[in-house]
Design a protein that fits this description.
The chain has a single domain, classed as Rossmann fold (3-Layer(aba) Sandwich), CATH 3.40.50.720. The protein contains nine helices and seven strands. The protein has helices at about 30-40, 55-60, 75-90, 110-115, 120-140, 165-185, 205, 210-220, 230-240, and strands at about 15-20, 45-50, 65-70, 95-100, 150-155, 190-200, 255. It has a seven-stranded parallel beta sheet with strand order 3-2-1-4-5-6-7, sandwiched between helices. Helix 1 (about 30-40) packs across helix 9 (about 230-240). The longest helix is centred in the middle third of the chain and has 23 residues, at about 120-140.
């Protein structure tokens, strides 16, 4: 979170328990969300990449998260063990945050058609899209009859072609379709499923995309608010969807990008004739 930003404290999530995936460092979107949830009284478990304990444990401790487990979403045994840890600690959960994505770095540059490989494409789809389906099935099984809320993180590269986003854009499109189908399936159980679509935010994921800094600058200059999406804004939207404030919202992709997605052409550009 920005140094000058003071996290508002409250009890919006008091008594609620859930899981956050994808915390890697203090710049992770998942960390921004977890910090907001903790400030509102939520009790959480962190499921993190194997080998990330040294980075994740101090962050977890700073907001009172005591349940942590490694999870490799490409390995069923690892998934079983991670969710068993959550089950043992909490019994039931009220919310789940899926913030997991991956594509090979050499496929996040240049030509999508020329650089995409079968192996890389399938790996990106497995980690970025199927992992959501797998996590959602497991998380929903732990939610009470009163329902719950599941969110995932996407990006507008699913809707429009962005330079260098390539395979990840296709995987995010599949992820958003999965959100809609999961929302339909789980709706009768009062489990809401939504996606948050932040604009470019300075994270490890952005650093893996060629000219990621250029995406930040371009997004800022072309947005309605002339600023990049803030971590606080993304966390606040996530809090809304995960809390009882979002009770009637499901199957949606919510853009949190300072209005970037609504813009046509910038004011310093001339529209095409005709």
């Amino acid at each position: 979170m920005a140094d000058e930003y003071q996290m508002p404290k409250g009890a919006l999530m008091a008594g609620k328990k859930g899981v956050v995936t994808g915390v890697a460092n203090h710049q992770s979107i998942a960390w921004g969300i977890a910090s907001q949830l903790a400030a509102q009284g939520a009790e959480m478990a962190f499921l993190h990449l194997p080998g990330m304990e040294r980075r994740v444990e101090p962050l977890a401790e700073s907001i009172g998260v005591k349940v942590l487990a490694p999870m490799d979403v490409t390995d069923d045994t690892s998934m079983d063990a991670a969710f068993a840890t959550v089950k043992q600690a909490f019994g039931q959960i009220d919310f789940f945050v899926h913030s997991i994505a991956f594509a090979n770095k050499d496929e996040l540059a240049g030509s999508f058609v020329e650089n995409t490989t079968r192996q890389g494409f399938l790996r990106a789809m497995d980690i970025s899209a199927f992992s959501f389906v797998d996590c959602t099935r497991r998380a929903a099984a732990m939610m009470p009859e009163t329902g719950g809320s599941i969110i995932t993180m996407t990006f507008m590269g699913s809707e429009r072609a962005f330079p260098n986003y390539n395979t990840m854009g296709v995987a995010k499109a599949a992820l958003e379709a999965a959100v809609r189908y999961a929302a339909r399936d789980l709706g009768p159980r009062r489990i809401r499923v939504n996606a948050v679509s932040p604009g470019a935010v300075r994270t490890l994921s952005l650093a893996g995309i060629k000219d990621g800094r250029g995406m930040l600058a371009k997004g800022r200059s072309l947005s309605a608010m002339k600023e990049n999406a803030s971590m606080e804004g993304v966390a606040g939207c996530s809090l809304w969807l995960l809390s009882d404030l979002g009770l009637s919202t499901t199957g949606e992709v919510i853009h949190v990008d300072s209005g970037f997605h609504i813009m046509g052409f910038s004011e310093d550009e001339e529209p095409a004739a005709g």
